[in-house]
Design brief:
The chain is 33% helix and 24% strand. With 438 residues, the protein is α/β, with parallel strands linked by helices. The chain folds into two domains: 187 residues, FAD/NAD(P)-binding domain, CATH 3.50.50; 168 residues, D-Amino Acid Oxidase, subunit A, domain 2 (D-Amino Acid Oxidase, Chain A, domain 2, 2-Layer Sandwich), CATH 3.30.9. The strands form four sheets. Strands 6-7-5-15-16-17-14-18 form an eight-stranded mixed sheet, sandwiched between helices. Strands 9-3-2-13-20-19 form a six-stranded mixed sheet, covered by helices on one side. A hairpin with a 2-residue loop joins strand 19 and strand 20. This is Oxidoreductase.
């Protein structure tokens, strides 16, 4: 029994979009030269690249939901160029430079699509802040500075007074600014890319695949009202890759949550006193991500949960408790805006691995996958999906060689219930240790 996405219907990014056009669903028996499962950043990139490499091929891109309803439309709107979190700690500088090059290739690709198709997604090259609240956070920032120096990347310190003029709050003590990050409206970007796919890519939405099997040298994808037969299948399914029997005991499903306000009024914006369109990630990894969007919304993201059943693991009571925690974080930063309500609170599930290794490659004959983004879906999904198409058609490039060198096999997980208990304990410990930075 394949467990399908079970996301809440309160993603602010998605709800802010205009209504989508009616979906085309999988119906009848379909034959494709290539099938791509999952229409997030990885799947969209894979389908586009396949179409470029094989202009006469029939390519079917299939998703269980509407485009942008899933994880790709639920992140905090950062496209980060730097190796992220634990990848930045890698001892091999060549490894980190390869990651940096891959991420920047993804950013260039996304920017090209935004400009070429006029995608209205608040795309902006404004960099990002990595912020500390107190001594614990500042210690992380000093370590981050050493990592930036080792990497040879530009950065500068932003002290409390200057920082508060940007953020509209004196809550943070210091930050390090790095210039290479882009901000965007993720749901708008993903939908915009789906709206401008090449002509030989057919997008099938609201078409869950409930069975996958090998028949006479072909792969058969069984849906509710139809099926697809194809010799080559590309999986851009992230954590759901394990539902098809691959990497089954190697991926950890984690959900992170965000809340945001309605757009601030002119009077509220004057009280806020900061700038528009910036993003701050926490120096302490378990801290709070903060955004002020270009359309005047303040976004708070923290709270991590192990979700063995994906969205079905999250009760309404849990969501309300998370919303209350977000409210505390908001009021600590913006007490003068206490009357400004949250309009949406949502979660997004992604895959991590215990050894923080991304999977990229061929799973078996005719099946290829990029899975386990470890929390950096926009850039990594884009470049890994693109290069997965190259791998599937037998193309070669330096970028393909690079991605194969920096990826590997996620480590095996202990069996349940020990896995769930261990992950939940680690999340609780990280939250307690980071309580001063929340």
């Amino acid at each position: 029994m394949i467990a399908l996405p079970n996301d809440d219907n309160s993603c602010g990014w998605y709800q802010a979009l205009p209504p989508a056009a009616p979906a085309t669903r999988l119906r009848g028996q379909q034959q494709a030269d290539y099938a791509v499962l999952g229409a997030g950043f990885a799947g969209l990139a894979a389908a586009r690249r396949l179409a470029e490499l094989k202009p006469d091929a029939r390519i079917l891109l299939v998703d269980a939901q509407r485009v942008a309803e899933g994880a790709s439309g639920r992140n905090s709107g950062f496209v980060i160029d730097l190796p992220h979190k634990f990848a930045l700690e890698h001892p091999d500088p060549v490894h980190k430079q390869k990651l940096l090059g891959l991420n920047r290739a993804a950013i260039a690709q996304l920017q090209g699509l935004v400009e070429r198709h006029g995608i209205d997604c608040q795309w902006s090259a404004v960099g990002k802040y990595q912020g500390a609240v107190g001594e614990r956070g500042e210690a992380f920032l000093e370590h981050f500075e050493h990592l930036m120096q080792d990497l040879g990347e530009p950065y500068h310190w932003v002290e409390k007074g200057e920082l508060s003029k940007v953020l509209g709050t004196p809550y943070y003590s210091r930050a390090i600014f790095t210039p290479g990050c882009y901000l965007m409206q993720p749901a708008a970007l993903v939908r915009g890319m789906a709206d401008h796919l090449p002509g030989n890519v057919e997008l099938l939405e609201q078409s869950p695949i409930r069975g996958l099997q090998r028949e006479r040298g072909q792969w058969r994808l069984q849906g509710d009202e139809g099926s697809i037969t194809t010799p080559r299948l590309l999986l851009g399914t992230s954590i759901f890759t394990r539902e098809f029997g691959y990497l089954k005991n190697r991926l950890l499903p984690v959900m992170t949550f965000a809340s945001w306000t309605r757009p601030l009024t002119d009077e509220e914006l004057a009280r806020y006193g900061g700038e528009l369109n910036w993003g701050l990630t926490p120096a302490d990894h378990a801290g709070t991500t903060l955004r002020m969007t270009a359309d005047r919304r303040i976004l708070i993201r923290n709270s991590y949960k192990h979700v063995s059943k994906y969205g079905a693991s999250v009760s309404e009571g849990m969501r309300q408790r998370i919303r209350a925690d977000h409210r505390k974080a908001f009021l600590a930063r913006y007490p003068a805006l206490a009357e400004v309500p949250f309009t949406h609170t949502w979660g997004g599930v992604y895959a991590i691995s215990r050894n923080f290794t991304n999977f990229f490659g061929q799973l078996e004959e005719g099946v290829f996958a990029s899975a386990c983004d470890n929390g950096v879906g926009a850039a990594w999904g884009t470049i890994s999906g693109t290069l997965l198409a190259d791998l599937a058609v037998g193309a070669d490039s330096q970028a393909l060689r690079d991605i194969r060198q920096v990826t590997g096999m996620p480590s095996l997980n202990p069996p349940e219930p020990f896995l769930g208990l261990g992950v939940k304990s680690r999340i609780r410990l990280a939250k307690w240790q980071s309580r001063s930075e929340l």
